[in-house]
Amino acid sequence: MTLRATTAVVGVAESDLGEVGPGLTPLDLVGQATARALADAGLAKSEVDGLFTASSYFPMSGMDTAEYLGIRPSYVDGSTIGGSSFVSHLLHAASAIHAGVIGTALIVYGSTQRSDGGRLRSPSKANPYEAPYRARHPISMYALAAARHMHEYGTTREQLADVAVAAREWARLNPAAFARDPLTREDVLSSRMVSDPLTKLDCCLVTDGGGAVVLTGADRARQLDVTPAYLLGAGEATWHRAISTMPDLTTTAATDSGRRAFAMAGLRPSDVDVVELYDAFTINPVLFLEDLGFCAKGEGGAFVADGALAPGGTLPVNTNGGGLSYCHPGMYGIFTIIEAVRQLRGECGARQVAGARTALAHGNGGVLSSQVTALFGTEDVR
């Protein structure tokens, strides 16, 4: 069974972003994003019969969210696999729609972690067998992967810094981005070291924010007064939970999730116009671009260097500014979907990639643990 182009995203929206939480709760941001996404789709709340969500605040997030929104879904999925949860929910929702279990799915998330003191709030906790080593969770785990990639393939700190600089160049074109000041390679390299070899500016933002995605069947999507973004393929994979059990620090399960997504979509990496990756740290895009097939293993550092991912570069990556410069409210994956859809709908203003017909959204969860890939296309690609 294939899900290719059987469903389409018809509505996307963020809540207020940045530092907006004082006086608001994570569910308030969920409500903002939901109302805006439904308005974007031209659908009523009563038409939502599938709810997909994850939260680091509410262990029973599906029930809390349904209660807050005032909906009574017939299908609830509150599975949590970290920041990749929402790309995973996309696959689960498409499966349920294709099977006729539901007609319209709402995927939603909200967090006020910046207003809650600026500390990372995550369902991902340190492994007790690793705790005696006093690693800084999760940054030390990503620093391990970065250090190993540098050792094994000659990747440099300068190349990692170029990932952050490219993200900032895109963010400067996005009025909604949290960080829009100019950023240079030297700024990244000279910023405070947090976990060697990653500095503060190699790390994602800590913001408030929420997002919502509305998915429905392809036939229904064509009846709406919107431009659908068709889900062409999706795949997910999990290889480990703790970084100490990761089979190879330089290779992630994106090799499997990407392969499955591309096979379902009938596409190759060279067919993709826009790439939205979960960039919690600058090493992430290097690893994912390799593992998803955009370059060979070990060539990621050279691939991302010298503005290759920035506006005017060889591959548009994280065109909203990513988790490094746009927003990062604890779990970022839903925002990769939102930006991919907007690019295909031609709604991105100064940062719009001309002629974008295909887009990839990739979520990462835990400590490089869970990987989920989705591919979208316009009507003419479908």
From TrEMBL:
PANTHER family found in the cross-reference section: ACETYL-COA C-ACETYLTRANSFERASE, NON-SPECIFIC LIPID-TRANSFER PROTEIN-LIKE 2
Pfam family for this entry, one: Thiolase_C_1
Protein name: Thiolase
Coiled coil: none
Residue span, Thiolase C-terminal domain: 235-377
Domain of life: Bacteria
